[in-house]
Amino acid sequence: MLVYLRLFKESFSFALNALRNNKLRTFLSLLGITIGIFSIIAVLAAVDSLDRSIKEDLSGLDKNTMYLTKYSFGPTDIPRWQRDNFPQTENDDFEFIERNVPNIEAIAYVIFGATESIKYQGESVTGVELTPVSNGIYDIEDFKIVNGRFYTESESYSGAPVIVLGHSVAENLFKNLNPIGKQVRVFGRKLTVIGVLKKFGSGIFDSPDDKAYVPANFVRRFKNGGADGIAGAIIIKPKKGVDIGAFEEVLKQKYRVYRGLKAGEPDNFFVNKMSGFTDAIDGIISFLNGAGWVISAFSLLVGGFGIANIMFVSVKERTNLIGIQKSLGAKNRFILFQFLFEAVILSLLGGVIGVFLVWLISLGANYMIDDFEFILSFGNILLGFGLSTLIGLISGVIPAISASKLDPVEAIRTGM
């Protein structure tokens, strides 16, 4: 064990000497491995950070949640002209599904809203995403009320002029005032603030902090419905433990009957599942990871050739020393490990620099970008060091073997 520790110490010393004596050559050799490790760790860290942010944003939504609407949330074989002729999903559809489809834990009817301005006395907040939706959304989304309450089923059904504000909207509009009971103006109409949502925080998707919610039936009073009117969707959360495939079949069958579709006729609606959306995101994340590996592999290949090159040169420069060591009794494996350790140490140095650069960039990105947290995980750091070690081993093994097989007499003569 002491022999190998001494060997490691000598190899480290040789590596430092190589750095000091051939600064430019070593710098150019290490540049490839540094760029390679930097590229792959930066890409993996960015993709991991993106994946984590997306999953945090979707954490409050059940993967089995379904969106019943005329629109497809993903690729479809149905042509555009045919989809455009699908009837809108309306409140009557929502009431039918609510009454006739079993095993529903929560259901809501949502009208696809738009950005609106909310005014209170002399204050105004513009660009608020106003969402008309029935009260069932409270049991579907991960909402928490920090002040006041959400509107009730009775208020939702009657279309009461009430509104629930996101945390940022309430803060910007009322400053230090208590917003509960205050009347704001939206759509040119007065609505009473009955609740404020708990701060959600920013993320990849739109945050509830910048939204406001009103009963869908309130908006239906003055917005046109029907085929050419406002677009909507039914959001359905099945009960836990229900067979999702069977539930979806029952849902489609009953809705087809409601819409008068005959056997053989295609559906004129889509059932979009959140599980399909998250699967698509996982596919995109996997593709980005794969693309990052492919792109970075070229840099790692160049870095490996650079390490191999500097090791071959090091063997040639120290041929005389190798001959002397072997003439004094040094075994082949001692010479082999000496150069192999040196290659690994040089490669690890490039890896350390690459990981350090990613860490610096992550600090800068987190400082400059408020809505996204760039995370350099411990796993990615270990991966960087592991790849560096592997590249060093692969690049140094052939030069190390050639050094260990040198004849001592020929080595001394060649060195002289």
TrEMBL record:
Residues 26-253 form the MacB-like periplasmic core domain. Belongs to the ABC-4 integral membrane protein family. Keywords: Cell membrane, Membrane, Transmembrane, Transmembrane helix. The chain crosses the membrane at residues 27-47, 291-313, 334-361, 381-403. PANTHER family: ABC TRANSPORTER PERMEASE YTRF, MEMBRANE COMPONENT OF TRANSPORTER-RELATED. InterPro entries: ABC3_permease_C (IPR003838), MacB_PCD (IPR025857), Macrolide_Exporter_MacB (IPR050250). Residues 294-408 form the ABC3 transporter permease C-terminal domain. This is ABC transporter permease. Pfam families: FtsX, MacB_PCD. It is a multi-pass membrane protein. It is found in: Cell membrane.
